[in-house]
């Protein structure tokens, strides 16, 4: 049995980068050459306790800055009681977001906030491993009063009070056992962005779109926003390939001003767009509201770059969004995402999480599955994004069957990277990057 006096002994950090830009995987109108990366965190423990794993997702340069931000939090974590930390992760969440000198760098946004999310998610991974449950089940089984206590309601009570949150969670438990059975049997609906990266040619788009339909996906997404004529052609190829019954979504990755977003979305609407994602600046609440009014019945989806619970509150209050897209690694971890899920439930807006990247599919599936089992109680008009790369680097990778995420059964948050992948892709000294530097040096010599 783990020792009751076990402590966190270290917060180890790793700058992990994958060379995805070389095949244009992940390419979009705003980010043409991403190298998908993770500022990876491992909480070391003593006393026979498991480790905790988490990360912040970035796209290459700057991942070293993200790692440095995580390291700045070490003094708040090392020496903490493992038992106490797992019994109440909210205490650490509040300590990290409340450090006044580090908070000044946000507050509650940007690199420091993402670093907090990486550490907080690692604590939840530790708690779930310690409990012997996958995180979605740990959350779904948790007492509603305890879950409510994990949330910081500061700045939210004009839209969501603790009593309202508690009532939502209590009501969400009705039928939870039956929904757990459905989830384990059938999984959670997914859609795929794999065919739609902006750097792919039309043949690759068509081939991957046809494969997605054959694999059971009922929605695909294309990246748009660089050139309207190209987008019209690519949407025509996609629609001709998948037929009229598959949902087609588009993602502009923040590329447009508000009038441009309205005009461009209108030009693509003939292809039966289900939603337009991130049509303008992620911080522009009123701009999103204007776009939503103008482009209906095309839905507006956003949230992967919404930096905290307050921005989500404003998007919902302003009627600016049809689809809430949480991200597991953008805000300050599970605690803040619980607040966002509850806000979405209060306003009756479906949540379709952002994924892809490095490990985002692995993480966010747990949040969506908790939402289904113990909060919203439905998967109607709800899908989790799926991208089919980099999963093999994780010890508990996602499993997709017939266009659905299979519910994880291994304990934890599915965040642990394989040691061999850490050794190979740590930047700049990992075996891949060291050999790459030698090859580059040889070509320029």
UniProtKB/TrEMBL annotation:
Pfam families: MR_MLE_C (PF13378), MR_MLE_N (PF02746). Signal peptide: none annotated. Its cofactor is Mg(2+). Keywords: Lyase, Magnesium, Metal-binding. The keyword Transport does not apply. Residues 202-298 form the Mandelate racemase/muconate lactonizing enzyme C-terminal domain. GO terms for molecular function: L-fuconate dehydratase activity. InterPro entries: Enolase-like_C_sf, Enolase-like_N, Enolase_C-like, L-fuconate_dehydratase, Mandel_Rmase/mucon_lact_enz_CS, Mandelate_racemase_C, Mandelate_racemase_N_dom, RHMD-like. It is an enzyme of class 4 (lyase). It catalyses: L-fuconate = 2-dehydro-3-deoxy-L-fuconate + H2O. Its EC number is 4.2.1.68. The keyword Lyase applies. This is L-fuconate dehydratase. It comes from Streptomyces griseoviridis.
